[in-house]
Amino acid sequence: xxxxxxIVVLILGFCTATLAQxxxxxxxxxxxxxxxxxxxxxPSTKRLRLKTLQAATELRIVDENPSAGFYRVIxxxxxxxxxxxxxxxxxxxxxxxxxxNAPCADSFASCRPEGCGAPGSDQAILNSTKRRQPSESNxxxxxxxxxxxxxQKANNLVGQHNELTQAERDSLVNLSVxxxxxxxxxxxxxxxxxxxxxxxxxxxxxxxxxxxxxxxxNNDFHISLVESAGEDEFKGIVVEMIPQDRNPGWTLxxxxxxxxxxxxxxxxxxxxxxxxxxxxxxxxxxxxGQPKRVSLWEVHPITKFFVCTKASxxxxxxxxxxxxxxxxxxxxx
Length: 333
Fold this sequence. Notes:
- By secondary structure, this protein is an alpha+beta fold.
- It has 2 domains: 2-89, SH3 Domains (SH3 type barrels, Roll), CATH 2.30.30.40; 108-331, CATH 2.40.50.140.
- The longest helix has 19 residues, at 2-20.
- The chain has helices at residues 2-20, 122-131, 144-157, 166-170, 252-261; strands at 30-33, 37-40, 49-53, 58-61, 70-75, 79-84, 88-89, 140-141, 175-176, 181-182, 187-194, 201-202, 221-226, 237-241, 264-273, 297-308, 326-328.
- Residues 1-21 have low confidence and may be disordered.
- Strand 4 (58-61) and strand 5 (70-75) form a beta hairpin.
């Protein structure tokens, strides 16, 4: 039984690894529970039991590489855990993922709002949502605790690594946070630091949202934001500066300088749920290629970016006006 599972997973190894590099959806292999087994928080019988799974329960394999005889899986829409490999049974074959590397537009100017998504498809909805500008003028302040809590709410509503219809995206509303409620698309602000160990960079692998064009100027700037100085991206979230009408004063060189100086920042923009990915917050068992983060909720697109200029680095998220210590990135030297 274990040999069958191993063969299937090896067939899919390239598929799963490729998926992590892309913003286009490719299904994870599905397996069924052969006999009652515990879903655990980590790959060990000593780790917390999250749930007892009965025979015939369907799971999705997250990572083709077992750890100590355990596979990381997704239960239902979005609950991630680990199961003992000898307790699950896999089908004998899965469809290979088609290559999707070719650009779908001749130039950035001709790249449609849906990117490479077919009109009306879930991919097109995802891509257009990534470009959607928030309409409100008052931003809700979110803490990192809020963002972790929002992930749990999203797990129950739409899950992780799932394609979402417009109706499912529309369900991401009235989500409670510390100060009130938020929804996807709400204008929010998050205060933090740029993560240690990862420089801000352009996503030049060729994303569907930007018609798979690979030039830096035609792609999102990927930034990992953490709560406290010195934390790595496993404790952070992803925030993105999109190339459409990006402020010319927002450069990677400036962002790298901000990170090297250890400046506190304030990121303002639209709240977005990156549904096709998987939370990757365990440094002991990282998911290859998946962005490291504690929540799939992003600030995407960023509409304003401030840098704290106070010697204490303690600028408040409450105000960005005169005397606040915040300076817009485009004015930061």
